[in-house]
């Protein structure tokens, strides 16, 4: 292998990327777009759920309860209904996710027996949201009933006797704000790396075939290894640059904490890039049309990264079989490492299993890619 | 083969065969090309000219046979072969999205032209291509003739002793073609062995030797002069007549006629005895309602030889 040829190859490839608006767009604008789109657009937090209320009693107590819903940041009362039909319509049309109905004998039963019921109707087409909404609703009603009990005992002149039930004092670690953005942004870096890496490289070889420059290239003494390394070097640098951009943007724009060390982040990113670029290159060698190569490249890199890496969809919530499959998805290790680096501040030692898995992956892909390109036209 | 042989005959092919499935593209072709010699591959499209050149460049593996280029076996040491050859073809181009200078620098790098001589070589290539002042122009913006000369410039940056040119001038205007051939002659004067394929019959005259290729076989290999001197087995007559289509039907059956071929709006007719034919043929044609105009002896062209050796109809006009 000769450095002169490798350098000539890398310079040529860089110039071509620089002059190709489409490649430039992917390399430079795509990371920003993805960051903004996913950073703002994808939120798994449930806040300000639209609620429809039907207060059949309209008493001091019932209004008191509803005010608690209004005050909660999880709910927002969007409609006050006068009958059940309105509630049904509202749920049907998706104007609200949750409906609260207060019965006409709410205060009466509360005073008589100390036990009353409130009806909550939830739109469970999205079961995840429905579950969380029910949980929040129970919490609001629970708060109300505790206060009601206290004031009732107080009114009867009995001394206050607290029966303290077991109270769970939970402490949230690593993502104290329970903000899904903190959880998603590190994963987006994996997504961007996969997208940029596969898209750019999947075109490098097929472009030479389609433009008819491949035959000339093959007729020169350049070796397959020089072609591969020379072609991939610029994309590797672009990938690292994009990773640095994502890190800075995530930390300073989205206020995502970064607690790990930058060196480990770039080590993991380099390994991931080797795998993604290698796959893109392999696809490009095997599929001679640019369109076909681009699609296959995405299928092999972006799709598993999106669905099976755990970047947004937690792996432990997947069926056992699919969980098993995720061990084969190289992005899984990178996403785990990214999240641990950002949120937990894990060091290189803690991440050894993930890093080693990625080293193994990178070695296999690099080996296959190096052997893929043959310098003849047969 | 020893080094001295490589000096004398930088290109040696022995019984080269290339099959694509059941189709035999190149069928037992053997030849030697000497230092400073220009050999033209002449033949119709699909005759196997490009396939032979690609095998010699190491782009395709021969199905059978051996070849030695610059002293290296093309099967065993294709990379060494590539270091000593320059290759260009009309069918593919340089990088259109790179400038003239960037293309030259790229190929200079791939051929490992020493850093200290590269500027001078690049300057030479630019001058040769007539592109002075256009070093920063994108190659895609250049006209065909310029692109061709620049491609040749890229192919000779490393001063290869051997040059393979695969239909280098097809689609290029006549003026540019002539300039291109001047360049090739300059290179051969410096000792470069040139193997060039073309389907322009007139370009054959620029070559030292011509290899006539048809359906994968090497039909003849000789100098243009010797080929023309070869006994055609008679004398060639040019006959102008009308309607020409009827004449082509009658003449082959006429006594003393060996071969008939149409060239534009006249016929080239190979006959055993010119005098007898000149007096006998016009009346014969007149019987069938064909008017005869000019009728005279002509010197055979390469095209006549080609038609004679390969059989009519195969040659491009």
Describe the structure.
The complex is a heterodimer of chains A (378) and B (317). With 378 residues, chain A is mostly helical. Chain A is built from 15 helices and four strands. Chain A folds into two domains: 3-42 and 179-372, no CATH class; 49-151, abc type-2 transporter like fold (3-Layer(aba) Sandwich). A four-stranded mixed β-sheet of chain A has the order 2-1-3-4, sandwiched between helices. The longest helix of chain A is centred in the middle third of the chain and has 29 residues, at 127-155. Chain A is elongated, with a radius of gyration of 29 Å. Chain A starts with a helix and ends in a 6-residue tail after the last helix. Chain B is built from eleven helices and 14 strands. In chain B, helix 5 packs antiparallel against helix 6 (144-155). Chain B has helices spanning 3-8, 49-56, 78-83, 100-110, 118-128, 144-155, 174-189, 224-229, 244-250, 274-287, 302-310, and strands at residues 11-20, 23-33, 38-42, 64-69, 72-73, 85-89, 162-166, 193-198, 209-214, 217-222, 235-242, 257-263, 266-271, 291-297.
Task: Give me some keywords for this one.
A: 378 residues, abc type-2 transporter like fold, 2 domains, four-stranded mixed beta sheet, 15 helices, 66% helix, elongated, B: 317 residues, alpha/beta, six-stranded mixed beta sheet, four-stranded antiparallel beta sheet, disordered C terminus
Number of strands of chain B: 14
Specify which chain pair forms the largest interface. Answer: A-B, 29 and 31 residues
Helix content of chain B: 25-40%
Number of domains of chain A: 2
Task: Please outline the helices and strands.
The complex is a heterodimer of chains A (378) and B (317).
Chain A: H1 3-19, H2 21-41, E1 49-55, H3 60-71, E2 75-80, H4 84-92, E3 98-102, H5 106-113, E4 119-122, H6 127-155, H7 180-202, H8 204-211, H9 214-219, H10 224-252, H11 262-286, H12 290-308, H13 320-326, H14 330-344, H15 352-372
Parallel strand pairs in A: 1-2, 1-3
Antiparallel strand pairs in A: 3-4
Chain B: H1 3-8, E1 11-20, E2 23-33, E3 38-42, H2 49-56, E4 64-69, E5 72-73, H3 78-83, E6 85-89, H4 100-110, H5 118-128, H6 144-155, E7 162-166, H7 174-189, E8 193-198, E9 209-214, E10 217-222, H8 224-229, E11 235-242, H9 244-250, E12 257-263, E13 266-271, H10 274-287, E14 291-297, H11 302-310
Parallel strand pairs in B: 3-8, 3-9, 6-7, 7-8
Antiparallel strand pairs in B: 1-2, 1-4, 4-5, 9-10, 11-13, 11-14, 12-13
């Amino acid at each position: 292998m000769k450095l002169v040829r490798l350098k000539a190859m890398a310079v040529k490839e860089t110039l071509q990327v620089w002059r190709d608006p489409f490649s430039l767009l992917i390399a430079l604008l795509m990371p920003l777009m993805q960051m903004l789109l996913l950073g703002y657009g994808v939120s798994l937090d449930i806040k300000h759920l639209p609620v429809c209320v039907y207060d059949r009693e309209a008493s001091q107590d019932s209004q008191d309860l509803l005010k608690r819903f209004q005050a909660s940041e999880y709910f927002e009362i969007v409609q006050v209904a006068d009958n059940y039909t309105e509630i049904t319509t509202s749920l049907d049309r998706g104007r609200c996710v949750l409906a609260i109905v207060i019965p006409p004998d709410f205060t009466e039963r509360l005073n008589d027996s100390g036990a009353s019921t409130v009806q909550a109707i939830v739109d469970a087409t999205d079961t995840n949201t429905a579950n969380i909404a029910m949980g929040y609703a129970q919490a609001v009603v629970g708060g109300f009933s505790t206060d009601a009990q206290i004031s009732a005992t107080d009114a009867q002149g009995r001394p206050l006797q607290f029966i303290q039930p077991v109270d769970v004092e939970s402490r949230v670690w690593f993502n104290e704000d329970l903000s899904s953005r903190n959880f998603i942004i590190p994963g987006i870096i994996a997504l961007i790396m996969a997208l940029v890496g596969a898209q750019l490289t999947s075109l490098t070889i097929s472009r030479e075939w389609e433009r008819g420059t491949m035959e000339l290239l093959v007729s020169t003494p350049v070796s397959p290894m020089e072609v591969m390394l020379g072609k991939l070097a610029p994309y590797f640098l672009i990938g690292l640059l994009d990773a640095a951009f994502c890190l800075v943007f995530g930390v300073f724009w989205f206020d995502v904490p970064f607690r790990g060390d930058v060196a480990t982040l770039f080590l993991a990113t380099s390994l991931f890039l080797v795998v993604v670029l290698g796959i893109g290159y392999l696809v490009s060698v095997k599929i001679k049309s640019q369109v076909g190569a681009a699609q296959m490249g995405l299928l092999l890199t972006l799709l598993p990264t999106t669905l099976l890496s755990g970047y947004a969809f937690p792996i432990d919530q997947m069926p056992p079989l699919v969980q098993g499959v995720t061990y084969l998805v190289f992005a899984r290790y990178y996403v785990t490492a990214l999240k641990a680096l950002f949120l937990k501040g894990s060091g290189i030692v803690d991440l050894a299993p993930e890093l080693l898995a990625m080293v193994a992956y990178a070695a296999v892909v690099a080996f296959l890619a190096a052997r893929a390109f043959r310098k003849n036209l047969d | 083969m020893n080094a001295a042989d490589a000096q004398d005959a930088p290109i040696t092919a022995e019984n080269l065969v290339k099959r694509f499935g059941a189709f035999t593209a190149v069928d037992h072709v053997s030849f030697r090309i000497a230092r400073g010699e220009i050999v033209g591959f002449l033949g119709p499209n699909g005759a196997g000219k490009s396939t032979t050149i690609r095998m010699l460049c190491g782009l395709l593996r021969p199905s059978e046979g051996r070849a030695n280029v610059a002293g290296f076996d093309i099967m065993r040491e294709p990379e060494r072969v590539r270091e000593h050859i320059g290759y260009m073809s009309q069918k593919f181009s340089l990088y259109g999205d790179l400038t003239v200078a960037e293309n030259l620098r790229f190929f200079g790098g791939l051929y490992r032209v020493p850093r200290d001589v590269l500027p001078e070589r690049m300057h030479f290539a630019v001058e040769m291509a007539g592109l002075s002042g256009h070093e920063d122009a994108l190659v895609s913006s250049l006209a065909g003739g310029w692109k061709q000369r620049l491609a040749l410039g890229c192919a000779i940056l490393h001063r290869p002793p051997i040059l393979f040119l695969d239909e280098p001038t097809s689609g290029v205007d006549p003026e540019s073609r002539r300039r291109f051939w001047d360049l090739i002659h300059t290179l051969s004067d410096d000792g470069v062995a040139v193997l060039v394929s073309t389907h322009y019959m007139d370009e054959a005259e620029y070559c030292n030797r011509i290899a006539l290729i048809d359906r994968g076989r090497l039909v003849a290999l000789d100098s243009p002069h010797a080929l023309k001197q070869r006994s055609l087995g008679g004398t060639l007559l040019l006959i102008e007549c009308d309607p020409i289509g009827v004449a082509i039907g009658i003449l082959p059956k006429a006594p003393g006629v060996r071969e008939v071929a149409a060239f534009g709006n006249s016929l080239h007719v190979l006959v055993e005895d010119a005098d007898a034919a000149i007096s006998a043929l016009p009346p014969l044609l007149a019987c069938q309602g064909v008017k005869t105009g000019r009728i005279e002896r002509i010197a055979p062209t390469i095209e006549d030889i080609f038609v004679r050796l390969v059989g009519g109809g195969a040659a491009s006009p």
